[in-house]
Backbone:
């Protein structure tokens, strides 16, 4: 029997990359770390993402247990995407990216003044 | 005149994602954080990467100033890829991914025993 342990890469970085190693997943995660989002909101917020790419990324993240899809029985129906506890535990990764990006932008400003 | 500052995304996470937001770039960076690597070594080490995907990723990282390509005038010529200071400064991002991957693997083992 193949267990979860068997199918995970040996390298811990590769494990993480297999779950969120794409531009779209990283940007979705950045948004969901703040609050739950609706599909259309996400699509408007993430520049250049197609409906298909967003659908694919969200389904993959849901299958991996990072993202939770909640449908509220309203009229019209409301669907929200939020992070699971597992997804939430990835916050330090996005924080490290945020910190690096801030330093890089500050450096770019200094170089031009 | 468009400056570097103008073309960077507002969001610092998006800045970082624009530089290393892909599966291959993240895995290349993981390798180069240890030592310089040759092209063929990298290709063997990163499971599933095609020659074209590796070439494209390395060129893009070189153009972004993250990776340095050094050709040694030997016979046969030797070419090595290493991180620049800018690339090296991304270490905390990969470390955060490594740490998360280790926790995830440990959890997977616990769930199966």
Residues:
């Amino acid at each position: 029997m193949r267990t979860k342990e068997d199918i995970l890469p040996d390298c811990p970085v590769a494990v993480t990359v297999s779950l969120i190693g794409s531009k779209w997943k990283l940007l979705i995660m950045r948004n969901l770390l703040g609050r739950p989002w609706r599909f259309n909101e996400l699509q408007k917020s993430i520049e250049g993402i197609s409906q298909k790419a967003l659908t694919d990324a969200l389904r993959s993240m849901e299958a991996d247990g990072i993202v939770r899809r909640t449908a509220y029985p309203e009229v019209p129906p409301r669907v929200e995407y939020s992070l699971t506890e597992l997804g939430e535990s990835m916050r330090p990764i996005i924080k490290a990216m945020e910190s690096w990006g801030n330093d890089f932008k500050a450096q770019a400003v200094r170089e031009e003044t």
Q: What stands out?
A: Chain A has one domain: 8-112. The domain at 8-112 of chain A is CATH 1.10.10.10 (Arc Repressor Mutant, subunit A).
